[in-house]
Amino acid sequence: MHDNDKKPKMVFHSIISSIQKIALYETKSHFYLMGSNNTLTRFRVLKIDRMEPRELLVMDDKIEYTQYEIRDLVKMIDMGNRNRVNQRGVASGVTKIVSSFGIIGFIRFLEGYYIILVTKRRKIAVIGHHTIYKIEDTSMIYIPNDSIRLFHPDEQRYVKMFQSIDLSSNFYFSYSYDLTHTLQNNMAPPKHIKTEMPARTLDSSEVTEDSDDFFNMWTSHKDWQKNGYSEKTIDYGIRSNPHRRFVWNSHLLDPVEKNLHRDWLLYIIHGFIGQSNVSVFGRSMYITIIARRSNKYAGTRFLKRGANFNGDVANEVETEQIVHDSGVSSLNNGHFSSFVQLRGSVPAHWSQDVSKMVPKPTITIDLSDPYVETAGEHFNGLLKRYGSPTIILNLVKKREKKKHESTLSDGIYTSVKYLNQFLPPEYHIQYISFDMARKNKGKQANVMGRLANIANTAVLKTGIFLSLHPYYNKNQVSNIKKFHIFTKKKTLQTGVIRTNCVDCLDRTNTAQFVIGKCALGYQLHALGILNSSQLEFDTDCVRMLEELYEDHGDTLALQYGGSQLVHRIKTYRKTAPWTSQGNDIMQTLSRYYSNTFSDQEKQHTINLFLGSFIPKEGKPPIWEIITDYYLHHTPAIKYSRKTKVLTQWWDENVLKCLPYSLLEVTKTCSEIIQIQDPQAEMIDVYYDYYRPYELSLLLEVYSYQVSHSVRDFMPHFTTNFSPFAVRVRPGRRREEAGNKNTILKNPSLTGQSSTSSTASSASSSVSSTDDDENQDILEFQKTAYQNYTEVISFETLFPSMKKVYGVQPEYPKRCYIFLYKKLVLINKNAICRTDHSKPHTRLLDKIFFHTDYDNIEVPIISNKNISIYEQYIKTDWRIHAKS
């Protein structure tokens, strides 16, 4: 083939939002939002009408301004409104109200609209050069002018209820990376352009069997030949369509999403994001945990159980574990690996009555489902999103004296058995039951070992995602070859492991940690870090992963259950100290109190935030609604006849794509732009990450602040610096080594019961040490990190050896001292002096005899000296004789 006939390589880059800073200006009749990039070279303007009391009128001219043009525009607005006095009593024409970093959305209750802005953010993680931010503070501003405001008596109560949603608790966003999709989906090439913006997912009927990749038409065009693109790269900037299931501000963006430029739109997720740096002899491997909570059928523990008619289950969380080598941070050239797992309630219509004051309310099956339609909808969605196989790890009890949890276990087993008879055998849903509570009884119980065996089998079936060809050892484990995980240049994960217990909190989090630990071994093995895929407990790497999953579990437990985890990973490893039992009791009481007294108010808040309930005139307010069942189960009040055959519970296009995911095979994007310059600002994440136009302090750089295996986990006294070495006495722990000013997590969605949970977390971290000797080390580390306002004593400046190294020095025995002195004396005699500054005479040479007699020559004595000596002898004899 001729060189000019070769197709060029196409590289896709995510477009970076050009609006990362926003200034809100106010006049009497309008709000002006001036959005710009970080370098303040590109600007856009939004104009919001304030003279409309109920409707939202937002005008976007879609024009990009320069810095000089935007200054002229502000001056013109100021001059045009100079004679007017705004509602704050300022005589100037235009007033700057607030600076922000993005628009969360717009909301209306019974009066006019409010705008919600991100006023404070914090860098929480990086994926390559893509930065992820956590929302730290927001501002909610009423849009209509007070002169035309129409008051309603219930407005302030709705505002107070909405503001009880703590947007600073575990809401995340990114300007360049799509957090609503997995890494595997983000790195997949797009297949279709879908420009419409409504909040609906791609209908399966839109994808036809003969639909080809629309990029084939572009590459077959002769333009690239005329421009001499043979064996070169063509760069495209794309904007992906977000996964609506995980967009938590979708309802807030609905009023403006169709009319605004995409750079104004900020899609936020809710859940948990944590990151740590595993230093492998100076080579930084970043481990990131991203947990995305579904906005479908979302709510609190006892008020949201089971599933609705659409197959959306309660407490559904997608957890993604990403590992990447920070040495090469480009998504196209670096080595990235990810693994996705899922948790969610049992997909059936069941509930628990919390009206009675009992610790464990009875599990009730609310609706019989003879054809398993609800579970079928749920598993059809999993096959569509993740492919095949779907592996269910059910941790619910199987045998009980009084039937309670086993009701759910029997139900999910029957459902899977029924659904599998209509599905091809190679794509069957795989069911694994493991009674975790029962297996944990007894001192010799080995729950973690059994879970590890299950996890290894399941991970080998689903595989992991790897962006480039793996670096695994030639002498790789035989089972890797058997299951064909590392056989392709770009390895894909097909299928998902779905874990559940009753609450999907304590037991589920421990099982997900074991699965994540197993997957991490394969990820590090594929990236060339480990010779094998085995990771041992009590290593710095696994302890760091355990901390991530502990934070992950605590955050999700606070959001769904109202307290932190009760049974932790250490509980099932049998390493938790007896002092942690008091903390477990406090967490149980906190969860019980939250579920009994505050869950109803939280549920109203979530329904209001997500748009499940929209206030309207003449409609009962949300606090007067007895139950929200009909808000989440619309078929219960509006029946719609289904045309699909009950035995075909899956979509045809889903089955055609198996074992791959339909969402990846038919990936869509909303915009695609051919880039002439690969270093264009709109796709240059390197420039956006390092920001050479700003002065950076090294101590404030994120790489120095992220949790580090050497600084936060490696013991002081070790000589083995490998993060994969088993520690007999584990070292520091991140949450225990921090000072009192460390920012603590506050994952409560509604801001309620956060103080008690956070306080209990502090006590928990101290009581979760492994032994008494570790306690002394931790006490010293706490003292070393105290702020400077504390009293500094001699003991704090010069701690004892016991506190630092865990060893108390003792006075040596007398025999050892004698032996030591003897060795010192031998050493002095054996070494010749080379110091010429000290006196060195013939007399000294004669005094200090040599010890090597073989090397001494016999002196030569002259006859004169001999005669003198003989004469002396004779004289001495005569003297003695006379006497």
Automatic annotation (TrEMBL):
It is found in: Endomembrane system. Residues 739-752 have a biased composition (Polar residues). PANTHER family: POLYPHOSPHOINOSITIDE PHOSPHATASE. GO terms for cellular component: endomembrane system. Pfam families: Syja_N. This is SAC domain-containing protein. GO terms for biological process: phosphatidylinositol dephosphorylation. InterPro entries: Fig4-like, SAC_dom. Its main location: membrane. Keywords: Hydrolase, Membrane. Residues 732-773 are annotated as: Disordered. Signal peptide: none annotated. Residues 753-768 have a biased composition (Low complexity). It comes from Nasonia vitripennis (Parasitic wasp). Coiled coil: none annotated. The keyword Hydrolase applies. GO terms for molecular function: phosphatidylinositol-3,5-bisphosphate 5-phosphatase activity. The keyword Hydrolase applies. Residues 162-562 form the SAC domain.
